[in-house]
Give the backbone structure.
Amino acid sequence: MKKPKKTPAPALNRRAASPAGLTQLGHAASQPASPDAAVLETVANPQPGVTYLIRFTQPEFTSLCPMTGQPDFAHLVIDYVPNRQIVESKSLKLFLNSFRNHGAFHEDCTVSIAKRLVAAMQPRWLRIGGYWYPRGGMPIDVFYQTGKPPADLWLPDQGVASYRGRG
């Protein structure tokens, strides 16, 4: 009786090849110096024609106050319904982190992020919630969306409580 062939165990540290054209995923990538220098990369939507929601949450987003240079902190929630492209998550992380040394008001940061994402991937629908921690004793929350969400979309609450201060 012949012994069955052994199938080798998959290598745990093997890197999958990056989809063609991606320059950051699977490669060392330096932190962009500014949001303008950041490159948002996209890949083909693996489920075209299906209405589904993709959510990215960045609970420790930082930028700088353009007046004082002091750090500002936000909890960002980005929801979108893809069309032909989805954003590649490593490039999104690098893009969001590029705001760390960027001076801009809360409103500008939040809406600029949304506009860059829309330009990069042209989603069917996108919304962003920027839940900013208090500056001068007042939290500033900024919300933006591209229009009405698709009628057949399950759209969960963003799940970020309003700021209540110390209780």
